[in-house]
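Example record used in the benchmark description.
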Amino acid sequence: MTTTKYKCVLLKLSGEAFSGKADYGIDAPTLARIAKQIKQVLEMGTGVAIIVGGGNIWRGAKAEQDGMDRVTADYAGMLATVINALALQDALERQGVTTRTLSAIGVHQVAEPYIRRRAIRHLEKGRAVIFAGGTGNPYMTTDTAAALRAIEIGAEVLLMAKNNVDGVYSADPLKDRNAKKFDKLTHLEALNMHLEVMDATALSLCLENKLPIIVFDLQAPRSLERVVSGEPIGSLVSSEK
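Model output (structure tokens):
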């Protein structure tokens, strides 16, 4: 069995990770592959918490551009993350993984309310824990929620899973062939260079709490297992040079 470097990690899944090659929605085979990777990491002995985005179902920024009130659009986005969380919960349970979904907004019929101590206890029992609803507040992205929850539960690293992008680049590598990949950089460098690791609020939280971030390609074979085992893939953003 592969050895693990971390006791507890927080995995950030964007909404786009759920749609596979489609433009929107949830792709069942893609979700099953993600669930298998998470199961493998749990079997390695690493606690796994997951926070999900909702961009495959709802785009709050687009709704706001179309004239919707920003707060209303953001709350609709939180509901989209609940849908993704339930889909991931089902995919994990099909793999035999005991899973709990905790939501920052009240949806008591389908998910437990987010309580920090309850989340930690689930992790101690070896369960996969899914966080839905972002932070429960408008104007806050799921990136910010990922940083906040990682700090709250004592995760050793924040894993930012990307689609077909294997790290942090100076520009979008899918659009600019001359984009330079950074194997390692500091939080402050990422902030100063305005790199698209995550939004500035989330990155500042990680900087203040010295939480390392690993950005990697979720589509690469065994990528999650390789990251958790300590293999140097993707890009590491940390407090040290």
